[in-house]
Design goal:
binds zinc ion, Metallo-beta-lactamase, Chain A, 7-stranded mixed sheet, 5-stranded mixed sheet
C-alpha cells in the first residue's frame, strides 16, 4: 500500500489491487471508496499514516458498487458510525437488489493470461467473490458540492455501473474517476488513460459517453480507481481512452 499526497489535502492511496482517496479539511476526512474486504486494515492504516484516525471520517462516498470499492464500507460505517453515500441510481446495487459485476473467475476464464490468472487469485484472496452490497448506503445528499471535507461534487458517469459517480474536488482541481476512467489494470494493455475491459462494464457504450463529465471538469489531476494518478488536461485523457477503447465498446 502506498499513500500518495496528490495535493496538500488530497491523498491517493494505492492498495495492492485497487485505490481509495482521502480528502482532508483540518481534522476531518472524507473517504472515497474502501478497497476489497481484505483491504480494511490497509484503509485504516492509510488514515493513521497521514496523521489521522478513522474517527476523523465524516463520510464515505462510493464511486460504484463493485466489491473492490465497497469491500470495507459496511464495517467502517458500523465501527465508526459514519454515513455511506452512493449515487441514487446505485442504491439498488448497494442493497443487493441488482448485480452488475463480473466475477473474478468469469474474468479469468474470458481472458486467460498468466498476469490475469494471478490477479484473479489475488482478488479471490482479498474477498473479491463476496456480494458487493452496502445495505446502509444512502443516496447522495445533493448534486452540488457536498458539505463534507474536500467539498466533493458528484460527477455522475453511468455505464461501468448504472449509478457510477466520480467526484470533482474543486479546490484541488482534481477528479476521482472511479472505474469509468483508469490508468492501468492487470487485464489492460499497460499504463495510460483507458477504460476497463468491456466485461467489467454494465453498459460499455454508455461508459464512453459518460466520460464527457470528466473531460469538461475544471481539473488537471485525475485520481482513478485503478492505476497511478495522472496529471494533465482531462480532455486529453478522455480522448485517449475513447480512441483506444477495447473490443466490446463499439458496435462492430
Ligand atoms: Zn474497480
Amino acid at each position: 500500500m502506498a499513500v500518495v499526497q496528490a495535493q496538500r489535502d488530497v491523498f491517493h492511496v494505492r492498495g495492492h489491487a485497487v485505490n481509495w482517496i482521502l480528502l482532508r479539511d483540518g481534522r476531518d476526512l472524507t473517504l472515497i471508496d474502501t478497497g476489497y474486504p481484505g483491504d480494511l486494515a490497509a484503509v485504516e492504516e492509510s488514515i493513521t499514516r497521514i496523521g489521522h484516525q478513522p474517527q476523523d471520517l465524516r463520510a464515505i462516498l462510493i464511486t460504484h458498487c463493485h466489491i473492490d470499492h465497497v469491500g470495507g464500507a459496511s464495517r467502517l460505517a458500523a465501527r465508526y458510525g459514519i454515513p455511506v453515500y452512493v449515487h441514487a441510481r446505485e442504491v439498488p446495487l448497494a442493497r443487493g437488489e441488482v448485480r452488475e459485476q463480473a466475477s473474478p473467475l468469469d474474468v479469468a476464464r474470458r481472458c486467460w493470461r498468466p498476469r490475469v490468472a494471478r490477479w484473479a487469485l489475488e482478488v479471490v484472496r482479498a474477498g473479491g467473490t463476496r456480494p458487493p452490497v452496502v445495505p446502509e448506503a444512502a443516496a447522495l445528499p445533493g448534486d452540488g458540492p457536498l458539505d463534507l471535507p474536500g467539498r466533493p461534487t458528484p460527477l455522475p458517469s453511468p455505464g461501468h455501473t448504472s449509478g457510477h459517480c466520480g467526484y470533482l474536488i474543486p479546490d484541488a482541481g482534481a477528479v476521482a474517476t472511479g472505474d469509468a476512467l483508469v490508468t492501468d489494470h492487470p487485464t489492460g494493455p499497460g499504463p495510460g488513460p483507458q477504460v476497463l475491459a468491456a466485461m467489467f462494464c454494465h453498459a460499455p457504450g454508455e461508459t464512453l459517453a459518460g466520460l464527457e463529465v470528466f473531460a469538461e471538469a475544471p481539473a488537471d489531476l485525475l485520481l482513478p480507481g485503478h492505476g497511478p494518478l495522472w496529471r494533465g488536461d482531462p480532455r486529453r485523457a478522455v480522448a485517449e481512452a475513447r480512441a483506444h477503447a477495447p473490443a466490446g465498446y463499439r458496435p462492430g
